Structure formats: structure tokens, C-alpha cells
Amino acid sequence: MFGMVERVEDEVSPMAALAVAIVAVSTSAILIELSHAPSIIKAFYRSLFTTLLLAPLAVTRYRDDLRTFSGRDLFIAVVTGCALAAHFIAWFASLDWTTVAASVTLVQSQPLFVMVGAWALLDERVTRRTMIGIFVALLGMVAMSLSGLLSNAVVAGARPLYGNGLAIVGAIAAAGYVLAGRSLRQRVSLIPYVTVVYSVTTVVLFGAALTSDATVALTAYRPTEWFLFLGMAVGPGIFGHTIINWALKYVESSVVSVTLLGEPVGSTILALLVLGQTPGLATIIGGTVVLAGIYVASTGGKSAASQ
User: Fold this and answer.
1) What sign results for the dihedral spanned by CA atoms 253, 171, 227, 40?
2) Is the whole-model pTM more than 0.70?
3) How far apart are alpha carbons 97 and 282 in whole angstroms?
């Protein structure tokens, strides 16, 4: 697996790699739902196992890269890892209260917040098309949040409004993760970058686990649970997040954002096939509007640039 990571730059096209990544991240919500461990424990072990899988490669073949981290770069990496931890905590918890379809679609709205943050913090121009896309997507999120009032609890989840809100918090944290790490990724190679970020994320999640009621169940799990934890690390972690971070160096962020819209579709299909979760009408309509709005917003900058 490590050899594939090293050779992917020469042997695999960025778009092909993104296709693999989208399939991988689409399994995340399903693996989370299949696990009966507390949300914070799932997030912690996913991050821990992802870090442990990458660390040997980082310390043996990228030792010099790790040593050349400047104080500023290390600070950005720490902030990035904290943002990723916040994303995991909020999103994993959202799946306990709302449906996979609603949670995944709402958390995948992070490109909207990335564009708002880039405008506010990086002084990047926001086009009219981008603003229209943001408005449309926000309308879709409102429609999805109202699904709990229009559907029964079996379809919408135990506390859909709360779960949907957590998913949106997860989207904002994911946007912070992208914004904080964007410049650093251009200066630091992939494996050192993700190893440092994932390590910080693991430490933060471990601290969160120790302060929660889940501490008593830190290791008392059946083999099936450990297999699911490892699956979260290998699939969404290694072949999902890590490949997406690699592709960001070669593919425009707007293109990556558009391809990420395949995750809610894949997760919803898997939720129907594996979990028997049939999305309600409000979720279907709202999710469609969210995806349409994100697509318009994500391609706004590119369209403007080509004019």
C-alpha cells in the first residue's frame, strides 16, 4: 500500500485518483453506522489507525522533510489537525441523530464555507455565480433540516434537527481544515503533511475521549468493531482523505470540490442497500438543491476566470 502511495504520482492520473477517493469516502458514513462504539471512539480510532499506517513511511522515507518544518508551518499543521478533529467530532455525532443521506449531504457543503472563508480571510474575489450557488445550497440545507418535521422518526432519524446542525458544524470545521492547510500543502510533501495533521487530530480526539463518558469503553470492543475502525482508516482515511490531499496539488480546488459531490450520492445508495435507510421526500429534494447549489458555487470562480 505504501508503495502505491509513492508511485501514484507517476502512474495514476489525478482524476483517476479522485475517483478512487470518492468511492472510499462514500463508505465512511456506512462504516460509522455499522459500529456500535461511541462516536468519539470511532473518530479517535479512525484517526489513530490512519496515523499509524502512515507514520512508518513518514519517519523512514520523509525524515528530512519532517525536520525541515518551520515554526510557522508546524503551527499551521497543528491548527489544521485541530480543525479536522472538530470536523470528526461533529460529523460522527450527527450520524447518531439524523439519516446518512442528510448528514453526508450537509457535511459535504464545506466548499461553500471554504469560499466564504477565502473571501473573508484571503481577500479572494467571489463571483456572482458563486454567490447564487451559495444561496441555492443554503435553501437546500434549510429544506433538509425541515425533513424532521415532514417525515416520521424512522426515516428522519431520532433528532434530525440536532443531527443536521451537527453536520453543518462539521462542514464548517472541514472548511477550516482546508483553508488552514491549503498553503502548507504547496510547500510540504504529502506524507509528512498528512502524518503531522493526523497525529494532531489523534491527540485532540484522545483528549476528547478522556473527558467523555466513553472513557470506560476505550478498549472493550469485539473483533468486529476493531475491523470497522481499521476499515475507517484504510478506506476513508488512506484512500479517501489522503488521496484527496494529494490531488489538491495537481487539480484545481473547484474541480476537487465538484468531484466530492459524489460522496453524498454514494453514501445514500450504500445506506439504502446496506442499512435499509430510505431517504424521505424532503431529504431528496433538499439534497438535490444542496448539490446543485454547491456545483454552481464551485464552478463560479472557474467560469469567471475563463471569461
Assistant:
1) positive
2) yes
3) 17
